[in-house]
Amino acid sequence: MRNAGYSMEKIKKQRENIMNHESDIMNQKKVGAAMVVGGGIGGMQAALDLAESGIKVYLVETKPCIGGVMSQLDKTFPTNDCAMCTMAPRLVEIGRHKDIEIITLADVEDIEGQPGNFTVTLKKRPRYVDEEKCTGCALCVNNCPVRNIIYTEPEKEELKLSDEDLQRVRVIINNYKNKKGTLVPVLQDISSQYRYLPAEVLRYVADELGYPLSQVYRLATFYNAFSLEPRGKYLISICLGTACHVKGGPSIVEALGRELGIKPGETTEDMNFTLETVRCIGCCGLSPVMKINEDLYGKVTQKKVPGIINEYRTKT
Amino acid sequence: MPRIKIEDLDKISKKVKRTVILREGAGRAKITVHMGTCGISAGAREIMSTLLAEIEKKNIKDIILTTSGCAGLCSKEPMATVELKGEAPVKYIELTPGKIKEIFKEHVLGGKIVKDYALAKGSERVF
Amino acid sequence: MNNQNIQPINEQTGKHYRMHLMLCAGTGCVSNKSFKIKEVLEKELKKQNLQDEVLVVMTGCNGFCALGPVMVVKPDGFFYQQLQEDDIPHLVEEHFLKGRPVKKLMYTPPEEKEPIPKMMEIGFFARQRLIALKNRGLIDPENIDEYIARDGYKALAKVLTKMAPLEVIEEVKKSGLRGRGGAGFPTGLKWELCRKAKPKSKKQNTKYIICNADEGDPGAFMDRSIIESDPHGVLEGMIIGAYAIGANNGYIYIRAEYPLAMERLELAIKQAEDYGLLGENIFDTGFNFDIKIQKGAGAFVCGEETSLMASIEGRPPEPRQRPPFPAQSGLWGMPTNINNVETWATVPSIINRGAEWFASIGTEKSKGTKVFSLVGKINNTGLVEVPMGTTLREIIYDIGGGIPDGKEFKAVQTGGPSGGCIPKEMLDLPIDYERLAEVGSIMGSGGMIVLDEDSCMVDIAKYFLQFTNDESCGKCNSCREGSEALLEILDKISNGKGEEGDIEFLEELGQAIKDASLCGLGQTLPNPVLSTLRHFRDEYEQHIKHKKCPAGVCKALVQYFVDEEKCTGCMLCAKNCPQDAITGKRKEPHTIDQDKCIKCNMCYEVCKFNAIQRK
């Protein structure tokens, strides 16, 4: 659901560095020019703001043209404004601003000096078109014989579903055919039959219902109820709702971890137990609560855990 | 099951209320049959089933029928106490199915105490 | 059609029994084997030949879940709790046959010696005022006839025959009912907006009604309980709402974690359809309305209305920008009205008893009653419904029975992950939407988690941040990364690595997340941190400056010791220690090997003499 690759420590350190350097910078002679690296919407706006305040701007972009990702979008978050309408005026303005120099097809090779006075080395790749003379009339584009590259779909991998599986999934899908908003219920039914979502089955579902596989996976990974990994015979869900938390739920998780040798989200090697945590199953009166398949255990203590697990061990 | 009309709501309500009204604890009369070991051996169960049958037969819904333990006067069992709303409870002794039917008709439904079978009016003071 | 044609739903209906045993079949009591109790009860009743005199009714949740399984004996109202199979034969013989209530199965309040026999004499029940929960424990939720007998569907009949849609809206507006899901938006106004919304096009002129039963707040279970004990109340409210708004289709979006509630809803819808109370031409008035159930799949953000609708449509459930509001463009682009379970369940009573009656309850701006789930460190855990404006002290001490084990009350957390903590200095705060907002919390769906001296406020803030961090859908930067950053700092503080300036940074960042997020989840996620900072700043400082956790919760900051004076040398802790870290001879004080100790808290839990100390 998320991607967190960033550290508070780093930010704080950078902040400090800047503070320390600030005094040095104030004393130095500054050059009245700035370089903006990247000609996306952010870079464009930065270039414009800098140029408006009287600074000469070099706008460097690695692609053949500026505009970046936004030029490919229809609408933008969070206001749902039309992307092109936001961008086009800026493109025009940058093109004709006397203090902005656009350097496309260029990569930054080296930066020397310190804030206020940098020397930058750029490497500019060839365009094979004389930029001075080209007016952008598109005549050459339309006449180039290798313009239309035909896209051929990659060959589909064969489905490796057994007849039995095929039968099962077909029954599920047929229940929902020609109805609105069916993807989630279909996944739920598959999940309750298989206890997880097998990859092959998902591919089949995507084909049959006409959804892109990416969307099927988007939903399958968004909801907590779905698992892409096979789950054990007994699914242990420990409630970590607020009431269970304050009454010792986390220590039950640890006790179970010690007993089974697995962490939440994992399955024992013999495929008997899967450990999962849930946020509130609404039995706060009995907290801390844990559920093994459909059986509910209330007022669990660390001491009771081995006994409960052993009951299931002997069953298997 | 048939579709129902608005008038049917009241009909269903009335019909089921006989069952449900008990839970609201509001009744016109309350009959307590004393069911200690002595009472049961003297035939209190029979009194109870007679009362239930009477209530069923007359289709009455606002009478609470309940049991209590031994009333202390074991020699006069089976006994029952009838309490009409707003009136003092009356204790009846040495009951038979016939007597209780009469009491039910005269006292519970009619409001007249059946003096012949009554022990006393009122109840013991507690504390 | 005459009386004879109406077949009662189950055979008992209409028969006279002298005694009804209202046995709770809510999720809590079911997990304590109430169905097994029912079996044994019926067997024993048969043995004593009482099966025609005594009826066993499985009701919805009684609210007093901590004591499950519970049973109320009607008409007298005797209240039995914590029933075990072995108790039943004795109970049947003594009470149901001989009429001698069994004292040992009654409820004895903590610190009192004598049990309280009757339900209405127990403080927990006596001080409540039931509107949304009016039928709890009084009817069999799987029997529509019993609902009808308690004036069920009467409000619907009144609305369909005697009131114009706009009159219904006017009535709800006058009553002052506000959304019970948390934000407190006036329900009547919401309906009016949807009523007046233009349909998408001439061909596509449907409107939708949605009941939000995706009760995601951890520690709140009133929606589950309402559905389990009175599903028809919710359905009736929805049909009335649909008529007022002009909608013909309805959805109930319910959490996958509530299988019992779902089962009862399905049954209720089936029964209502059979009676013609749902479907086409309801009560022959030409009004059509049907309800479908949509099962959730475990995502907290689905409780947000736009993301809930996206989930029904099968899109990734991410919230979207409002406007357009659902009232203008909701489910599949049609005007849609979403209300919470409790709101719908309140509607029939307003129609039946009138707006003035409802408006006479509560405070100036918050009318009626509110259901709270009272959980955590409290004696009487359970569900309580009280008029708005009731003080925290009344709820916690008079109804809740105070804090267990003689511990001291510290704070109460309301509003789930979007809410805040209220300290003990504010115990006399009357609860309504405005007052809670003033002290930095919110009403939310009504979860009330009581914390005692053993709860650490940094840990609580961290707990909620972990929750929102897990559940953030990841659409907005501020929420996705902001929760991560807040959590990182809190983690640092609870691990004893907090620094000077962390508190200020938490405040600054919290404010930024509030301002920059799109939906309610992001806008409110810093609340647990900000409100604990507001009322318990010194506790944070203790963690940062002195590296101490006063409550003894944050593991990195506590050590476990044996109090030599209290230890009797019973060996219980040594036997249970998973690390074999406790040594000592019988009848001599034990010692804990700090190198081996993993701070699992086991010794603290098992010790009967309070000899284990956390410092």
The radius of gyration of chain A is 30 Å
Overall number of strands of chain A: 11
Tell me what portion of residues of chain A adopts beta-strand conformation.
Answer: 15-25%
CATH architecture of the largest domain in chain A: 3-Layer(bba) Sandwich
What general outline of chain C do the C-alpha atoms trace?
globular
The parts of chain C where pLDDT drops under 50 for at least 5 residues are 1-11
Could you explain the architecture of this structure?
The complex is a heterotrimer of chains A (316), B (127) and C (615). With 316 residues, chain A is of the alpha/beta class. Chain A is built from eleven helices and eleven strands. Chain A has helices at 8-27, 41-52, 83-96, 139-143, 163-176, 183-194, 199-209, 213-222, 242-246, 249-260, 305-315; strands spanning 33-37, 56-60, 75-76, 81-82, 100-103, 106-114, 117-124, 234-239, 273-278, 290-292, 295-297. In chain A, strand 10 and strand 11 (295-297) form a beta hairpin. The two termini of chain A are 35 Å apart. By secondary structure, chain B is an alpha+beta fold. Chain C has five domains: 13-126, Glutaredoxin (3-Layer(aba) Sandwich), CATH 3.40.30; 144-357, NADH-ubiquinone oxidoreductase 51kDa subunit (Rossmann fold, 3-Layer(aba) Sandwich); 369-452, Ubiquitin-like (UB roll) (Roll), CATH 3.10.20.600; 457-545, NADH-ubiquinone oxidoreductase 51kDa subunit, iron-sulphur binding domain (de novo design (two linked rop proteins), Up-down Bundle); 559-614, Alpha-Beta Plaits (2-Layer Sandwich), CATH 3.30.70.20. Chain C is built from 24 helices and 18 strands. The interface between B and C is large, with 45 and 50 residues.
Please write out the topology.
The complex is a heterotrimer of chains A (316), B (127) and C (615).
Chain A: H1 8-27, E1 33-37, H2 41-52, E2 56-60, E3 75-76, E4 81-82, H3 83-96, E5 100-103, E6 106-114, E7 117-124, H4 139-143, H5 163-176, H6 183-194, H7 199-209, H8 213-222, E8 234-239, H9 242-246, H10 249-260, E9 273-278, E10 290-292, E11 295-297, H11 305-315
Parallel strand pairs in A: 1-2, 2-5, 8-9
Antiparallel strand pairs in A: 3-4, 6-7, 8-10, 10-11
Helix pairs in contact in A: 2-3, 5-6, 5-7, 6-7, 7-8
Chain B: H1 6-24, E1 29-34, H2 37-42, H3 44-58, E2 63-68, E3 80-84, E4 90-92, H4 97-109, E5 118-121
Helix pairs in contact in B: 3-4
Chain C: E1 19-24, H1 27-31, H2 34-47, E2 54-59, E3 71-74, E4 78-80, H3 88-97, H4 123-126, H5 144-149, H6 154-162, H7 165-175, H8 187-196, E5 208-213, H9 222-229, H10 231-245, E6 249-254, H11 259-274, E7 279-282, E8 287-295, H12 305-313, E9 336-340, H13 341-353, H14 355-359, E10 369-376, E11 382-387, H15 392-399, E12 409-414, E13 420-423, H16 433-438, E14 447-452, H17 457-471, H18 477-494, H19 502-516, H20 520-524, H21 527-535, H22 537-545, E15 560-562, H23 572-576, E16 582-583, E17 591-592, H24 602-606, E18 612-614
Parallel strand pairs in C: 1-2, 5-6, 5-9, 6-8, 10-14
Antiparallel strand pairs in C: 1-3, 3-4, 7-8, 10-11, 12-13, 12-14, 15-18, 16-17
